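Example record

One chain of 112 residues, shown exactly as stored in the release files.
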Amino acid sequence: KQWYQRRVRAIAVDETLEALFDIQWHSYVALSLFLSVYIKCTAASIPSGDAGDFILAAQHFGVAHPPGYPLYVTIGYLWMKALPFGNPAFKLNLLPSFIGGLAASAVYITTY
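Predicted structure tokens for this chain:
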């Protein structure tokens, strides 16, 4: 009886891993689809509004106007250092595109 219970658990784990792989594969497709559309529509220079302040703050790891958005500036600083190509405005404008693609992938996973 113990051998049978272990075999049933192993089958359940295998089926769970297969289902997880199927979800991951489809979520990668959703990520690449949305990311390609977002990158195509990303501004190559400084957009209007407060974007210039955030780009400058993220590039020099400074503080934008109050409240300063410290998490966005910190992630933007690390993101800009990680990307070896493009001007600072384009680099930081890619960050919301990438986060939006991850969000689309997460929505796909949760609703699948």
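Notes: Residues 46 and 52 are 6 Å apart (CA to CA).
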